[in-house]
């Protein structure tokens, strides 16, 4: 009986030991499966996210290639627009994408129709240039609802999900008007060439009005301007003003709120031999720089942001959206003041080398990210 009891006890202990070992083995196997998983544990992911590696950036880059981008423009006129479009095109190409430029002949209803068509055609991303909130808000909402990201330049849009790129338009107006006041000794009569209905123009007008209020000895003699045939219209109407005020000294300066206006006015003033009149403009292109450098030209200075750089920054924020990043609602680009006095007299300067003479001009890294740099490298390597 004792032997039978001892045997039963031994057997029970043996079975318990076997079950215990089996349980330990299962526990170890489960731990092994957890440590080999690709996802981090909840505690690790909640504490501090891992920094993206080079391979992560490379994967992001591959996913962003081949995007179809639409650039919808209100108008595509002048050398500033040409250099802006060139900046957009080159940046899209560097990201391995395809750009379609869609001008709208300075007609907001046509621009709105073009926007609707781009949504219907399912472009991967949409860029807008010099639009208007009243005309485009509904179309932009359609694009966002369809999952198509939108980044606008100088369009005054406030739709949720849109990033609006803008030059510091009030600052540009202030820079040129302050120079005008300084050069004229704070007194004189001026002509304003400006056009309503464009968000950047409206912002520049705010600074202009404040300038007149702060400088009572500077009087506005005339104001005009149109976006249709801007340069020729500015030239024709400046010629008429010069005939209306033929006496030298009757017009101190012309303030042109767009470089197309400045070019037209400069032609008229130069042909009339009114070398006492100085012109101060806004925006800058290679053609504009040549006129400012010309000692016989009345156009002496301009405030601007590099137009190609604007296009590059706009594309970067669009690709951030395509990547799924949350981008800021507004991005403002600071301008620089470029005067003839700052430029060499023995060589021609272009926007490509202007940074050698004017601090703050040139390519901007705004909107760039590690994965966008990796994308450029990946596209460039092929």
Strand percentage lies at 15-25%
CATH class of the largest domain: Alpha Beta
Structural class: alpha/beta
Distance linking N and C termini: 88 Å
CATH fold-type name of the largest domain: Rossmann fold
Instruction: Write down how many β-strands occur, each being a DSSP E stretch of 2 or more residues.
Output: 12
Any idea what the CATH architecture of the largest domain is?
Answer: 3-Layer(aba) Sandwich
| Helical residues, percent | 40-55%
- Strand arrangement across the biggest beta sheet: 2-1-3-4-5-11
Overall pLDDT, averaged?
A: 87
Family: Belongs to the bacterial solute-binding protein 2 family.
Keywords: Signal
Subcellular location: Cell envelope
Protein name: Sugar ABC transporter substrate-binding protein
Report on this structure.
It comes from Cohnella hashimotonis. InterPro entries: Bact_Solute-Bind_Prot2, Peripla_BP_I, SBP_2_dom. It is found in: Cell envelope. Belongs to the bacterial solute-binding protein 2 family. Residues 32-59 have a biased composition (Low complexity). By secondary structure, the chain is α/β, with parallel strands linked by helices. It folds into two domains: 64-167 and 307-335 and 368-380, Rossmann fold (3-Layer(aba) Sandwich), CATH 3.40.50; 169-304, Response regulator (Rossmann fold), CATH 3.40.50. The protein is 49% helix and 16% strand. It has helices at 2-35, 42-47, 54-63, 78-94, 108-120, 133-145, 169-184, 199-214, 230-244, 259-271, 286-293, 307-323, 370-380, and strands spanning 68-73, 98-103, 125-129, 150-153, 163-167, 188-193, 218-224, 253-256, 278-282, 299-304, 330-333, 336-339. The strands form two sheets. Strands 2-1-3-4-5-11 form a six-stranded parallel sheet, with helices on both faces. Strand 8, helix 10 and strand 9 (278-282) form a beta-alpha-beta unit. Helix 4 packs parallel to helix 12. The longest helix has 34 residues, at 2-35. The N and C termini lie far apart (88 Å). Mean pLDDT is 87; it is low at 1-55.
């Amino acid at each position: 009986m004792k032997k039978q009891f001892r045997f039963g006890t031994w057997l029970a202990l043996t079975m318990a030991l076997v079950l215990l070992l089996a349980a330990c083995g299962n526990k170890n196997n489960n731990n092994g499966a957890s440590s080999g998983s690709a996802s981090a544990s909840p505690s690790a992911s909640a504490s501090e996210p891992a920094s993206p590696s080079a391979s992560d950036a490379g994967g992001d880059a591959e996913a962003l290639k081949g995007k179809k981008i639409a650039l919808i423009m209100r108008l595509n006129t002048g050398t500033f627009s040409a250099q802006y479009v060139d900046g957009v095109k080159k940046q899209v190409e560097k990201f391995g994408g395809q750009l379609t430029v869609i001008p709208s002949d300075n007609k907001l209803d046509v621009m709105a129709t073009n926007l609707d068509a781009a949504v219907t055609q399912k472009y991967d991303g949409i860029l807008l240039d010099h639009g208007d909130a009243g005309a485009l808000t509904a179309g932009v909402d359609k694009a966002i609802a369809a999952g198509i990201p939108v980044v606008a330049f100088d369009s005054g849009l406030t739709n949720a999900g849109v990033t609006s790129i803008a030059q510091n338009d009030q600052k540009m107006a202030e820079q040129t008007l302050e120079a005008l006041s300084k050069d004229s000794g704070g007194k004189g009569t001026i002509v304003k060439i400006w056009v309503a209905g464009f968000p950047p123009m409206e912002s520049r007008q705010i600074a202009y009005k404040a300038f007149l209020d702060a400088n009572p000895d500077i009087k506005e003699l005339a104001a005009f301007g149109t976006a249709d045939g801007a340069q020729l219209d500015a030239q024709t109407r400046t010629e008429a003003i010069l005939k209306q005020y033929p006496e030298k000294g009757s017009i101190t300066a012309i303030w042109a709120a767009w470089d197309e206006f400045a070019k037209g006015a400069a032609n008229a003033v130069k042909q009339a031999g009114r070398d006492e009149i100085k012109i101060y403009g806004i925006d800058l292109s290679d053609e504009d720089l040549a006129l400012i450098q010309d000692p016989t030209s009345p156009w002496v200075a301009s405030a601007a942001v590099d137009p190609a750089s604007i296009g590059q920054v706009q594309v970067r924020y669009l690709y951030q959206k395509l990547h799924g990043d949350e981008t800021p609602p507004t991005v403002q680009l600071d301008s620089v003041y470029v005067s003839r006095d700052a430029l060499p007299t023995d060589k021609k300067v272009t926007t490509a080398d202007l940074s050698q003479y004017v601090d703050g001009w040139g390519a901007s890294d705004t909107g760039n990210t590690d994965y966008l740099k990796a994308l450029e490298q990946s596209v460039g390597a092929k």
